[in-house]
Amino acid sequence: MRVKLTHKPSVVAFALLVAASVGLAGCGGGGNKQAATTPTEFTITASEAGKQLRLFVPKALRAGLVTIELTNTGKAFHEAQLIRLEPGHTPEDALKVIAAEGAPSPGWIHVAGGTGPAPPGGKRSATQRLRPGNYIVYDAPFQNEGKGLKFGLASFKVEGKADDSGELPKAVAKIEAYEYGFKASGLTVGRNTIEFSNTGTEPHHVIAVPYKPGATLAKLRKAFGQTGGPEPPLDFANVVYTARIDGGTKQITQLDLAKPGKYALLCFVSDRKGGPPHVAQGMIAEITVR
Ligand SMILES: [Cu+2]
User: Fold this and answer.
1) Taking a C-beta distance cutoff of 8 angstroms, is the pair 262, 210 a contact?
2) How many Å lie between the centroid of ligand 1 and the Cα of residue 18?
3) Å from CA of 284 to ligand 1 middle
4) Residue 5 lies inside a defined structural domain of this protein
5) Residues 76 and 140 in one domain
6) Total structural domains within the chain
7) What is the span of the domain harbouring residue 220?
8) Average pLDDT per 10 consecutive residues for the chain, totaling 290 residues
9) How many whole angstroms from 246 Cα to the centroid of ligand 1?
10) ipTM of this model?
11) Burial of 263 (0-12, 13-18, 19+ CB in 10 A)
């Protein structure tokens, strides 16, 4: 497996980030008093300071239906993976778990959606529920690999009581993830608004990658099913993906499919008990986009 979707965060980078954050002005925040059925807007702005990815995130919002809007004002890719931490656990604790990809995941850390990557100057949003708790936003897009960039990190609180009121917007295109596969329908070339649902019990995301000439589902299964196998015949220059969501949750978000043809849908997340990424357990599907 040569394709990695996480960075190994360095303790030094984190220390620098904390030091840099001390000088930050307040970034607004607070609850939104609109009707309970209207998603609360939660705006995240991302850029860079040199090689350091930077996130500007409100300090708090109320629980319930939320639209997370990521605006990339920088020159690199940015994403906003939300992670909920149970009381008594710090962002530093979470970074150690993130660094140990494939190791068992402790019970106090939960992937919680957010957005996949937005290109430089681009936007990405996700509408979903947020339950009360302490969250971090983690920004380490696959597209930035090998560029010497340091991941971005921010934290915020979701306040109030759990709120199940309101409904997610409707989406024509749907992708459902479960152990271990995908069901997809309604995807077309260009910008898709999708309902991404996780009907399993493990965390999942969906990565969509165009086939390279000569690729077949059988070749992909072989390439991803063994370590040190052949390079998967996929066009990773045109990869798009969603944030990771927990079992039993869903969100409305966007997936930009640049060109027509066959795509692989993949999941690189591991089970909470640890082990190989789901793609190595057969979590691959083929779709044809027109
Ligand atoms: Cu998965």
Assistant:
1) yes
2) 31
3) 10
4) no
5) yes
6) 2
7) 173-289
8) 41 39 38 62 98 98 97 98 97 94 93 98 98 98 96 98 93 97 98 98 98 96 85 94 98 97 97 95 96
9) 10
10) 1.00
11) buried
